[in-house]
Request: fold
Amino acid sequence: MTATATSTTALPTVLTARALLLDMDGTLVNSDAVVERIWRHWAERHGLDGDEVMKVVHGRQGHASMALLLPCRPMEQNLADNARMLAAETADMDGVIEIPGASAFLAALRGLPHALVTSADVALSTARMNAAGLPLPQVRVTAESVGASKPDPEGFLKGAAELGVDPSECVVFEDSGAGIAAGRAAGMRVVGVGPRAASHGPDVVVRDLTQVRVEDAGEGLLRLHVG
Reply:
C-alpha cells in the first residue's frame, strides 16, 4: 500500500513490511496520566498555559519541548531541567497501563524484525514497559542513542539500520505529531495510533492495537491487517 503524505487510507487495509518500528508512549503504553501531571506542574512553575504546553510535549524529548516553549532559555538549563523531570517520571508509574492490544501485538512480533524507538531514556522506557506488563523488544533506540529528538528522523533511521532493513521497507507505529513527522522524514509509512494521531497525516489510523493483526508472510515479509 502506498499513500501520499496528505491522505489517510480507509480501513480495513493490508500493509507489507520487512520491519516495524514502534514508539512507546501513546502507542504501546498509555502514560498520559503521568505526562499530564509532570508537565502541567512544570507549566505552572514557569507561568505557561498547561493546555498549550500539552500540545507540544508529546513525542519529543523533554529538553526539545522546553526549547520550543522557552526559546530564550539556555540549553544547559533545559538539559538539567529535563534530567530532573525524567527522574520524576521514572519514579511515577501511577496510571501507566498498556494500550489495548499491545500485549498481543508484541507477542505476535516475537522473532520478527521490530524495534522500540522512543524519546524516553533507558530507565524510563524500561520502567514504563514493565509497569504496563509489556516485554521490551531486543532492539531499542532510546534518548541516549540519538543526537536529535523527534521530529528529526534519526531515531527511526537508526532503528532500521540496526535491523538491517531499508527505511522504505519499514512501517512506523506512532501517536504524536512529532513522531509521525519523524517517520515521514525517514521515508517510512506510518500507522497512527489513537486520537492524537488522526490530525497529523499518517497513512492509516487505528483506535488502538486491537485493530492490528501481524502475520509472517514468509521470505522476510510481515503482513499487517489493519482495521
Summary: The chain has eight helices and eleven strands.
